[in-house]
Amino acid sequence: MNDRIEPTVDPTAEPAPAPASKAPPRSALDQLSRIEEKAARIEEKFARYEALFGRVENRLDAAAHRVEEAARSVDAVELSTEVSALKARVEKVPRFGALIVTALVTAAATTLLLVLLLRFAPGLVK
Length: 126
Hints:
mainly alpha; 126 residues
């Protein structure tokens, strides 16, 4: 027992008409104006991105300049440290007065040793 109802198709019936499109066909000028509007929007977006990239480039240049200045200041600090170390070493070097005293002491010691040598060992110096 089959309680199922099968649909029947009448082969002589005419096919159903295609649904009519509600929008009227657009003219070529209408499509062209829409394309131009889209192109204008794309150009505006491109101009905004170009301006944004210009600002980003300027900021990167400024940041690079600041980093370069910081690097130079680090070099200046290192140079200052080295100059201070060199100054400390130069200050340890004897001055002119110390050199004169050293020369006088050396001359006196040499003279004394020569006199002692001539007095106590005259045979060594001939």
